[in-house]
Write a structure and sequence with these properties.
The structure holds two protein chains of two kinds. By secondary structure, chain A is mostly helical. Helix content of chain A is 67%, strand content 1%. Chain A contains 19 helices and two strands. Chain A has a two-stranded antiparallel sheet. The longest helix of chain A is centred in the first third of the chain and has 35 residues. By secondary structure, chain B is of the alpha+beta class. Chain B contains seven helices and twelve strands. In chain B, strands 8-5-1-2-3-12-11 form a seven-stranded mixed sheet. Chain B has a five-stranded mixed sheet with strand order 4-10-9-6-7. In chain B, helix 3 runs antiparallel to helix 4. The radius of gyration of chain B is 28 Å and the shape is elongated. The chains are: A mainly alpha, B alpha+beta. Chains A and B meet through helix 4, helix 9, helix 10, helix 11 and helix 12 of A and helix 1, helix 2, helix 3, helix 4 and strand 7 of B.
């Protein structure tokens, strides 16, 4: 009846158990609050069923922040183990638990934190920046978010019921095959990624079509803000790369559930094929994350230098070159698998070639600052910190692109330091810059500068403390994912420094939460107008709070930096209001995601009847969702005029 | 907004170029002292090579870092200078808000990296062939053949020409190239001795190759670098390079002792050893099955791994 699910699935480990209890108490507190204050209707109408990309974007960010806390605690536990307990037998964390920690940490940080924040900002900004009122497929967008949320639910359920994978964030076979990982952990990994990955693919299609089809009149491709260009490139990568992930996870799942032999080490299966496929997705994935961060920095540098972006055209070429090249380098993740020298040298050189357009972007940013008037607000500090960390990461990346060097540092902590350099110092700093930069547009008030700067300095120095020692440890022969090591290796001092770095990062995170809480409390004093930074792109052209339809009128765009151009030539938005059609709220995304989540959960636990029922329900729900009529409502010209009058009043 | 402005004002007074430089020097000093305290008595294996391959790799690392500095120094310098000179408060600096770009400048920073990567590309091509783990090390001395098997969770080293097998300890003569064949009877693992250089994956049913040579005697740390299950962290071993005569005396003694004690490595003994186990002690065995390594691989070539172990004699050496 319940497959392999029974009461023994509840964890016995004290740390896991306390995490589950903590999560459950937090969840119940939220439910109690919603019930007591009768907020369920409000939540359902205003948020959960909303098709407004601005609200969907904020929901993405909330999920990502919750996951950042979980994966951050996991990082802390790992460093605690390595700094304090790795040389002793007293550890409260067993090898098996440690391996779940790093597998979950990597999976969550990439799929649910970085991707969540990236898609959050894309949802918030792309329609506004291209001067559109919505995305191309609003319902599909909601479905994408809810599939992401279903993956989020599944990966968190794994803490309370069963276990998570111990096979690392990419679950290489044969370790992830049934032979070596018979438990439910790898299945949780597969299905949480499979479900959220399909959501990502649908989002990729949605935003690519949005950018191609819904730009404001006059905004040619070469007049788009650079952030939109990076999203375009990133979504192209999603469309080409995510099907590979879906297929690879599908094959691994078939190996594990019906006994096929795609990736097993016997009966003709080939684990090396999995490694190739997962990185054929995995390397573009890195660029799916970093390109939008590049886009954010491009907007931030231009705005806070009060200057046009230097070398717009070469920036666009650099972005597209990176996007294309990102598909030609996957083998550099496994130079040590024994491919011939010609193959390794080819992939090494292709990898170095990517650093050329990346370097070009850095110089273009620096020369945007040149002859500018630079205001060092928090977003600009994140940019400056990024240039430092990203350059260090770039050098270590080029080092590892040389196969002869990679043979010596692969899978050591040198590698771990390198990719955290790119993902924290590159992606995360970019996303933080973006959150600080666009915060006032979506809330109507600034984030407190002092606390933001404190957070930045903690993150920067915490990052350096936490990861620079790892480069040295790698050179000392320390490999990744160690839950114990011989004290005579002399690694403990550096691990302690790295652990202190994690604490400093945690302090930075604390300042960020404090900053948000304090700024909400002092929102009257920190009130910001619709264009608080003297912005350049269209999102600053509309009022704050932003009306659901984004723009009351759709005046043609004439130049790059469309809003700057409007301000320079003293053109105001027209007031020739017309009726606007908007999508009604839809709950279909929630139902579809619930059905998908049940399918995943049922397959994890081998509850076949439930999987079959949920699959039938899912197909029915999709058919029903597509057949609905009356999905839109109209705001009349008169109502638009009334809303605009009110918003203009608010502005002062 | 008022609060924000006043903070910016305070920053201006606090930060002067002199203070920034002094602060940087102080920071550099603290970091240097800290690093010295942490590292002065430690072995940074990759930078302290004990074999020919690791030595070449160290040179390659230094060359690449120096080449990268050609880009890094301008980036950091421009960042610092530009950020200081064009700060909002400095109204004397020129301001060109509508500057769109500059073809010559942009050509420069497309061009210089292309040249650098061009140089590095040539170096990469040559060094990748030179350091190919599969390439035998040119030497007058006949290489020592060692077969490496990654198990759950220990290393088995088979010396087919010496009739000897060891667990979790690898001995080799100084100055003699060692030609490793690597396989696994475990999830994908990787074999690495940082003091000697290059690591290579060991995989079920396949044999990969690696050539190393120790040029100095010593005991070096070796480990697995690829997660392969619960006992992954235990897969460390000592790689001991000893003078040739000592090595020969040692191997002869081990063969004698293990034979008289009945410590034979045959298929039966192997199957017991291959059972998952953690924190295995060092073990020495007399090799009683010359086809042991091939049989381990063949487990995965004929039918199911779990059932194909006892009847591999027919499988032949087709690989």
């Amino acid at each position: 009846m319940f497959g392999r699910l029974w009461f023994d699935a509840i964890p016995h480990d004290p740390i896991a158990l306390s995490a589950v209890i903590g999560g459950a108490v937090g969840g119940l507190a939220v439910l109690a609050y919603l019930t007591y204050f009768k907020k369920w209707g409000w939540l359902w109408r205003e948020w959960l069923t909303s098709l407004d990309p601005k609200k969907i974007g904020i929901m993405y960010i909330i999920v990502a922040v919750i996951m950042l806390l979980r994966a951050g605690v996991e990082a802390g536990l790992m460093r605690l183990q390595q700094a304090v307990f790795a040389a002793s037998d007293m550890s409260p964390i067993h090898a098996d638990h440690f391996q779940q920690l790093f597998s979950a940490h990597g999976t969550i940080m990439i799929f649910f934190v970085a991707m969540g924040l990236v898609f959050g900002l894309i949802n918030l900004l792309v329609p506004l920046m291209i001067g559109a009122r919505d995305v191309a497929f609003p319902l599909l967008n909601s479905i994408s978010f809810w599939l992401f949320a279903a993956g989020f639910a599944l990966i968190n359920v794994s803490m309370a019921l069963g276990e998570f994978s111990t096979a690392g964030w990419l679950a290489y076979p044969p370790l992830s095959t049934l032979e070596y990982s018979p438990g439910v952990g790898v299945d949780y990994w597969i299905w949480s990624l499979q479900i959220s990955g399909i959501g990502t693919l649908l989002s990729g299609v949605n935003f690519l079509v949005t950018i191609f089809m819904m730009r404001r009149k006059g905004m040619t491709l070469m007049k788009m803000p650079i952030f939109v260009w990076t999203v375009l490139a990133s979504m192209l990568l999603v469309i080409f790369a995510f099907p590979i992930l879906t297929a690879t996870l599908g094959m691994l799942s078939l190996d594990r559930t019906i006994g096929t032999h795609f990736f097993t080490s016997d009966l003709g299966g080939n684990p090396m094929m999995y490694v190739n496929l997962i990185w054929a997705w995995g390397h573009p994935e890195v660029y799916i994350l970093i390109l939008p961060a590049f886009g954010i920095f491009s907007e931030v540098v231009a705005t806070f230098s009060r200057k046009r972006l230097f070398g717009y055209t070469s920036m666009v070429y650099a972005i597209m070159a990176i996007a294309v090249l990102s598909f030609t380098v996957w083998l550099h993740h496994f130079f040590t698998m024994g491919a011939g020298a010609n193959v390794n040298a080819f992939f090494g050189i292709m990898t170095m070639i990517i650093s050329i357009p990346t370097g070009v972007k850095v110089f273009n940013w620096l020369f945007t600052m040149f002859r500018g008037r630079i205001s060092f607000k928090t977003p600009m500090l994140w940019f400056m910190g990024f240039v430092v960390t990203f350059t260090i990461g770039g050098v270590t990346g080029v080092l590892m692109a040389v196969p002869g060097i990679d043979y010596q540092v692969h899978n050591s902590l040198f590698l771990v330091a390198h990719f955290h350099n790119m993902i924290i110092g590159g992606v995360l700093f970019g996303l933080f810059a973006g959150l600080a930069y666009w915060w006032p547009k979506f809330t109507g008030f600034y984030l407190h500068e002092g606390l933001g700067k404190a957070a930045f300095w903690c993150w920067l120095f915490g990052f350096l403390l936490a990861f620079m020692p790892l480069y040295i440890l790698g050179f000392m022969g320390a490999v990744r994912r160690l839950d114990s090591y011989d004290p005579s290796m002399g690694w403990q001092g550096l691990f302690i420094v790295a652990g202190v770095g994690v604490l400093v990062i945690a302090l930075g995170l604390f300042f960020q939460f404090l900053q948000i809480a304090y700024s909400i409390w002092k929102r009257k004093e920190l009130a910001a107008g619709p264009d608080p930074w003297n912005g350049r792109t269209l999102e600053w052209a509309t009022s704050t709070p932003i009306p659901e339809y984004n723009f009351a009128t759709l005046d043609a765009v004439k130049e790059k930096d469309a809003f700057w151009d409007m301000k320079q030539s003293f053109r105001k938005s027209s007031t020739d209001y017309q009726a606007i059609t908007l999508p009604k709220n839809r709950a279909d995304g929630i139902y579809i995601a619930v059905a998908s989540g049940i399918i995943g959960f049922a397959i994890v636990w081998h509850i076949w009847w439930a999987a079959a029922v949920a699959l039938v329900a899912l197909i029915a729900l999709i058919i029903i969702a597509t057949m609905k009529e009356d999905t839109e409502y109209t705001v009349s010209a008169k109502e638009v005029a009334a809303i605009e009058a009110e918003l203009q009043g608010v502005k002062t | 907004m008022i609060g924000i402005r006043s903070m910016a004002g305070r920053h201006k007074k606090f930060l002067t170029p002199l203070r920034i430089v002094l602060g940087s020097i102080l920071l550099l000093g603290v970091v240097s002292v800290g690093l010295w305290l942490l590292l002065h008595d430690k072995n940074i294996a990759v930078l302290n090579p004990q074999g020919v391959i690791a030595a070449q790799q160290k040179d390659l690392i230094i060359f690449t870092v120096l080449l990268s500095i050609v880009v890094v120094v301008p980036v950091f310098t421009i960042l610092g200078v530009v950020a200081w000179k064009y700060r909002e408060g400095n109204t004397k600096a020129s301001y060109r808000p509508d500057e769109e770009g500059n073809t010559w400048l942009e050509l420069t920073w497309w061009g210089i990296p292309i040249i650098i990567i061009g140089i590095l590309g040539v170096v990469t091509w040559v060094s990748t062939h030179q350091l190919d783990p599969y390439k035998p090390i040119a030497s007058d001395v006949k290489p020592l053949k060692v077969q490496v098997v990654a198990l759950q969770w220990k290393w088995l080293f088979v010396y087919p020409d010496l009739g000897l097998a060891t667990v979790n300890e690898l001995r080799m003569p100084v100055g003699t190239p060692v030609s490793f064949d690597l396989t696994a009877d475990a999830p994908m693992s990787a074999f690495w001795i940082p003091s000697l250089g290059s690591q290579v994956y060991a995989m079920n049913g396949m044999s990969s190759k690696l050539s190393l040579r120790a040029d100095n005697p010593g005991t070096f740390h070796g480990s697995n670098t690829n997660i392969n299950g619960e006992g992954y962290s235990d897969m460390t071993f000592n790689a001991i390079a000893m003078p040739r005569q000592d090595f020969e005396a040692w191997s002869a003694a081990i063969v004698r002792e293990t034979d008289s004690e009945g410590n034979h490595m045959d298929w039966e003994r192997y199957e017991t050893l291959a059972e998952p186990s953690r924190k295995n002690k060092v073990g020495y065995y007399h090799l009683h099955d010359e086809r042991l390594y091939n049989k381990i691989m063949e487990k995965y070539m004929s039918g199911h791994a779990s059932s194909g172990t006892s009847d591999t004699s027919h499988a032949g050496g087709s690989h």
